[in-house]
Amino acid sequence: MEISAPVFELNNVEYSYPGGIPALKGIDLTVMPGESIAVMGTNGSGKSTLLKLMDGLYFPSRGVIKAFGVELSERQLQEESFAYTFRKKVGLLFQDPDVQLFSTTVLDEVAFAPLNMGLNREEVMTRVNAALTALKIEDLKDRAPYQLSEGEKKKVAMASLLSLDPKVWLLDEPTANLDPRTQDWIIEFLLTLANKGKTMIIAIHDLDIAESIAQRIYILGENHAIVAQGTPRDILGYRDILIRNNLLRHK
Amino acid sequence: MLDDYSKTSTDLFETLHYPKFRRRKDFVTGTLSNLTSALERTVFADLYAERPGLLQSIDPRTKVITFFILILATSLTHHIEILLGLYLLSLALASLSRIPLGFFIKRVWIFIPIFAGIIALPAIFNIITPGDTVLVIASFKHPHGIGIMHLPSEISITKQGLIGASLLVSRVATSASFAILLILGTGWTRLLKALSAFRVPRVFILILGITYKYIFLFLRLVENMLLARKSRTVGRTGTKEKHRWISGRLGFLLGRSYHLSNEVYLAMLSRGWNGKVHMLEDFSLGLNDALWISFISGVILLVTLLELVWR
Question: Between the CA of residue A195 and those of A68, A106, A208, A214, B280, what are the distances in Å?
Fold first, then answer.
């Protein structure tokens, strides 16, 4: 595979919920390897849906999504070899960590993805221990995920992706509902990932955080379409668009 | 302005007359405490499987087969004495596996009145099981008929009816004890992996796996819903209002449940799950399994011999 080939290419992608309720309209987006992209928008603008489409969990009603040059279709993901390679390369952090953490203990949770990838026990344990250490949550390994605080849950959810070590991280509101210190910690962690060459697509509605992490920002409007895109500096200049799309207060 | 507000709010609080509450728990508090204990029970149930004990030391596949045989033997037994022996065996196994007996017994017997009691109750009367009278409930001058049903002149509890009902209840209780013991001494994930080793269809394992993972979220959702109501309720509310709230929440729960279960499934799929159960530990058969199989074979042989002798 060419290093310069796009990780994701979305051409005129549309998605509607059952009953024809539109979630995304005419999305064109290209993600190159190692890029950090922020997708911004208010609640209900379609950010989470976009990430689920890119993770092959939903499929577009219209348009094409290509991942690593291959069309991401339901049929394609039914092929075990493709699904295996794709899932190994792409990881999604869910907005609500409760839906992501379903194992009995944190240790089992962090081991879930590498075990599903068919790695042997030694390799799984090496990855699990490395992930727990990186997130500084070694002391939580025997706890039940449901007993953890929101910040701890978020860290465990991140560790459960880190143990998979995907090339592409899809992150849905990684700093939502967290105290400032944990938010800062997570931003630092994401910057470390970016420095290691990981590709990141982050759904977020905090402009400051998006600016500190992303090289490019896409704004999803309340009409579920991309209304602006550019570097953080460009986006900060689109004051009217930011105010109109509820990303900046009138002052 | 803030000063004005605080003055007004103080006045408001001073003018409030607090009703005297009775100590009886309302349905929100009652349901909340039940939910919390249900959540704890579910979590602790899985933690018992991690304790060092007799059943925990046996390969899950061996346990699935042997417990299936024990349940089969229980359902084919015709003598209450043998059933009592098998039930005592389940208690001994629970104790040797470091599962608290109080917790285990409660977990089994809580469902017995629902699943067996209701079915067995009519069978104790002479209308269903004629026989030797133990206790007369009602006497009439003449036999009666209600529709196609014939009522004798005396309605009573019979010895044969009592024996039949006890047999059914003890059979269900003993079978349930073995099934619950298998789950508590194995853990849900290991049990699913053992079932997939016996080529149980993947869709069945998939549904069981998601159900277990989803149950925590569901309990937490209901708990938060009830807490939200409790925080906004002062005093006691009328029955009509309670019914309206419950029916509204049931509809909400149905929609939310569907959404949450779908999200849990997507989260599992996203991390490479394909319906196969993978675990950190590998199953392996050892000396403990051989000893356990010999012991269970001995139990089955004894049960068969007693059945033949007492026939």
Answer: 21, 27, 19, 12, 31
Name every chain B residue with its beta carbon within 8 A of the beta carbon of A149.
none
Within 8 A by CB and 6+ apart from B102, the residues are none
How much is the ipTM here?
0.86
Which residue of A116, A149, A160 to mutate against B (max B Cβ within 10 Å)?
Answer: A116
Kindly give, in sequence order, each residue whose CB lies less than 8 Å from that of residue B266, ignoring residues fewer than 6 positions away.
Answer: A52, A57, A94, A99
CA–CA gap between residue A189 and residue B193 (Å, rounded): 35
pLDDT tens digits for range B209-242:
777 767 777 777 787 788 887 777 776 777 787 7
Residues B201, A101, A131, A66: is their CA dihedral positive or negative? positive
Q: For residue range B60-93, what is the model confidence (pLDDT) as tens digits?
A: 999 999 999 999 999 999 899 999 999 999 999 9
pTM exceeding 0.95: no
pLDDT of residue B229: 79
Which residue, B157, B63, B176, B47, is CA-closest to B109? B176
Question: Any idea how long chain B is?
Answer: 311
Dist. CA A225–CA A245, nearest whole Å: 11
**From the CA of A87, how many Å to the nearest CA of chain B?**
5
Hey, what are B300's tokens?
């089955």
Q: Do B269 and A98 touch (CB under 8 A)?
A: no
pLDDT in tens, B5-15: 444 444 444 44
CA atoms of B122 and A66, how far apart (whole Å)? 66
Structure tokens at A112: 């879930």
Alpha-carbon distance of A44 to B242, in angstroms, equals: 32
Tell me what pLDDT residue B36 has. 66
